[in-house]
Structure formats: C-alpha cells, structure tokens
Design goal:
Blueprint: E1 4-5, H1 8-28, E2 34-40, H2 44-59, E3 63-69, H3 75-87, E4 93-96, H4 106-112, H5 124-131, H6 140-151, E5 160-164, H7 171-178, E6 188-192, H8 199-203, E7 208-211, E8 229-232, E9 236-239, E10 247-250, H9 255-258, E11 264-265, H10 272-291
Helix pairs in contact: 1-10, 2-10, 6-7, 6-10
Length: 295
C-alpha cells in the first residue's frame, strides 16, 4: 500500500475558486474586502509567512495593508495602531503576526483586536463561541485541517481522531471543531500532549491522527496503525547541507516511512500550510460579508 498524498495546494486552489465568486459578488456591490497585517520585528519565519499572505491577498483582489514595526516598538504604540485599524472601515480583518517581542504581552494585543475583525480567531470571545458550537469564524490552521479531511473524502464523522498537541492555535481549537454535534464533525476526539504517558498507545488507536507537536519526526511508523489517515501540521527546520539555505522543512511525522503504512497523509511543505493561508482569506471574506450584512 502506498498512501494517498493529500495536496494542500490542490485543496487551496479549490477554496480560492469558491472565494473568487464571493469576492466578485462583494465588488459588484462596491465592496472590497480589506485585510490589515501587522508585524513587529524581523523574525525570519514571520517575514516569510507575512509575504506569502500578502501575495495571496493581492492575487485574490483583496485590499491589503502590510504594517511593519521595529523590534523595539512599545506595546502602547502597537495597541494604538490596532485601535486605528479597528476604527478603519476599509479593513474587515486584522492579524498581528506571532510571536511578538518579549516586552509585548500577546494576550493584550489579541484582546485589543475587534472580535468582528479577528480573522485569526484568537480573541477570547471568538474562542468561546467556537467551543459552544456557535463560531463567528474558525481558526485558520484547524479549519484548514478540517477542510483537507472533508474535501479529500475523509470526514471525521464517527471516527476516532487523535490530536497530538494542545496549543491554542491548533490542538485545542481543532478539538472544539471536531467534537461538535454537526455534519462533518461528530468525531470521538482524544487530545494527547507532553504530559501523556505512553503516547503510542493512543496514536495507534486513531482512524485519523493529527500531529501538531512542533517536533521533527516525533510520530514514527510504529506509532500509527495500518490504514490510518495522517495530518501533519508541524513545520520544523532541520539542518541539510545539500540545500542552499542549509536547512530543509520537515513535519512532525516520519513522512517517507508512513507512505508505506498510512491510507493518506499530508506532506510538509505543501500540506496544511497552503490551506491555512486559504482559510485566512476565507475568514477575511466572511468577516466582510458579516460586517456589511451580505451573506
């Protein structure tokens, strides 16, 4: 058996085609969805992510503004900029790229964003709505995972999903999405983490295994049952002298070994990442529709 490789690029292309119709409809009413992207400092990963997001936003015909502050920018200055963006009707979505410098409290920054414009879905109000099953928007990475499963024919309904990782960005919100009593969800969900004894005992029970641990090749082939669907959320840099950059990107699973055991698996790069960016555009368009009462 050779696993089906679940291409995030292909699924993202499907999403963009659907979004283009919604964007064109908004524009026919004289409305252009607007996205403001804020970064503090020059963290290489953040620079790369923001450029990718800006490129896609422009390609999709969304009005985007890219705001960069130096590393030593004060928390007060950043909060003042967020207030300006909250009050600016040209912007329907706001993201502040994490991580932030140590002198800036990310909780204060996240809570300063208008929940209606919180297209990352990190604001406590939006997190609460997600948990009770009445979401305004869905967080981009877990939403991307869900879309990959649904669009590839691997609905979580009635399946045992094991999530390795309990971050506020991936693990916890994915649990909240999949546990809901609704079509495409209704999964039995186990969340494992660094405090879980005998991790392999749980991962081998999974119909769908989601690796979101931030540790290269942490999930080995002996930890996965034959025929499982594996979604790899991890993006890790490992040294590789054969690459010009001196490193290459790998996921949280042993991808090559699992090709011979899993029924389907996402690659890194090219799996969850492209769909995560597509979900940011999805959220921006959805937020715009809500704010102008057009759905």
């Amino acid at each position: 058996m050779v696993a089906q490789i679940l291409s995030g690029q292909k699924i993202a292309a499907q999403v963009y085609a659907e979004l283009k119709e919604r964007i064109d409809r908004l524009k026919s009413h004289g409305i252009v969805p607007g996205l403001a992207m804020v970064r503090v400092g020059e963290d290489p990963a953040s620079v790369s992510y923001m450029k990718q997001k800006e490129k896609i936003a422009q390609k999709m015909g969304i009005y985007s503004k890219f705001i960069v502050f130096p590393e030593d920018t004060s928390e007060e200055r950043l909060l003042a900029e967020i207030k300006k963006l909250n009050d600016d009707s040209k912007f329907h979505g706001i993201i502040v790229q994490l991580p932030l410098p140590r002198h800036i409290d990310p909780r204060k920054v996240i809570e300063a964003i208008d929940p209606q414009k919180d297209v990352d879905c990190f604001h406590p109000l939006n997190v609460g709505k997600l948990l009770i099953g009445e979401p305004y928007l869905l967080p981009c990475t877990p939403h991307g995972v869900w879309q990959i499963l649904l669009r590839s024919g691997y609905s979580p309904e009635g399946k045992h999903v094991v999530i390795c990782g309990r971050s506020n960005i991936s693990g916890k919100p994915l649990f909240a999405i999949l546990i809901q009593k609704k079509a495409g969800a209704n999964a039995t969900v186990t969340v494992c983490h660094t405090g879980t004894p005998n991790l392999a005992h749980f991962t081998r029970q999974a119909d769908i295994l989601v690796a979101a641990m931030g540790s290269p090749k942490a999930i080995t082939t002996d930890m996965v049952r034959e025929g499982a669907v594996v979604i790899d959320v991890g993006v890790n840099r490992v040294p590789d002298p054969t690459e010009k950059t001196g490193f290459r990107l790998v996921g949280d699973t042993d991808f090559e070994a699992l090709l011979e055991k899993a029924e389907a698996i996402t690659p890194v790069p090219g799996g969850v990442g492209p769909v995560t960016v597509a979900m940011l555009i999805w959220n921006t368009v959805t937020a715009c529709e809500h704010q102008v009462r057009l759905s």
